[in-house]
Amino acid sequence: MAKLYFHYSTMNAGKSTILLQASYNYRERGMETYLLTAGVDTRAGAGTIGSRIGISAEADVFGLEDDLLVKIRDRLAKGHVACIFVDEAQFLTDDQVWQLARAVDDLKVPIMCYGLRVDFMGRLFPGSATLLALADEMREVRTICHCGKKATMVARMGADGSALKEGAQVQIGGNETYVSLCRRHWREAIGDLAPTEPEA
């Protein structure tokens, strides 16, 4: 039975690596996959899903105006697809998540979405909020803070090395821009918590 999956995490947790590995596993067994990524993120090149460890794959791109149900129907008309993978799913609109849900229900194709849960201000991305509401299954991809605890937040760093507290929700960047932190160290970074003494 086809399902809508949401794999979420903070920055640098390996979401794209997991996506590319899962797609490879299907293809290795002779099953076709369809990869989608946000057109706004061109860090690996336009129409490319890239991982920090150096693997990549070509993908179709989506923008805010695209109807993903139509895109998926068009792709399926060209041949069977065993699974659809969506990278940078936080950039989906509310309507687009519903389009993916309809594709799962009506076209009976599993869709695996990978993306950030919250932005640098600790707020849900619209696409992530709708995925949390609609996904049949959700899986957290874990990464760690510098203290060793699970990282659940992401800080956007300014040119001076301090964490920013405001700005546009979307700013494309990697390790030079974002740092994954546990909630306590995120609060400390944005000035919501006094620094703690290191434990002896």
Task: Characterize the structure shown.
With 200 residues, the chain is of the alpha/beta class. The protein has a domain at 4-141: P-loop containing nucleotide triphosphate hydrolases (Rossmann fold), CATH 3.40.50.300. The chain has helices at residues 15-28, 68-77, 94-107, 126-134, 183-189; strands spanning 4-9, 33-38, 48-50, 56-58, 60-62, 83-86, 111-116, 137-140, 153-156, 178-181. It has a six-stranded parallel β-sheet with strand order 5-2-6-7-1-8, sandwiched between helices. Strands 3-4 form a two-stranded antiparallel ribbon. Strands 9-10 form a two-stranded antiparallel sheet. Strand 3 and strand 4 form a beta hairpin. Helix 2 runs parallel beside helix 3 (94-107) and helix 3 runs parallel beside helix 4 (126-134). The model has no long low-confidence stretch (mean pLDDT 87). It is found in: Cytoplasm. It comes from Aliiruegeria haliotis. This is Thymidine kinase. Homotetramer. The active site is at residue 88.
SSE arrangement, N to C: EHEEEEHEHEHEEEH
The proportion of strand residues reads 15-25%
State the low-pLDDT regions, or none.
Answer: none
CATH classification class of the domain at 4-141: Alpha Beta
CATH fold-level name of the domain at 4-141: Rossmann fold
- General form: elongated
What is the typical, i.e. mean, pLDDT? 87
| Ends apart, CA distance between termini | 53 Å
Number of strands: 10
Sheet with most strands: 6 strands, parallel
Strand order of the largest sheet: 5-2-6-7-1-8
- Helical fraction equals 25-40%
Please identify the structural class as seen in this structure. Answer: alpha/beta
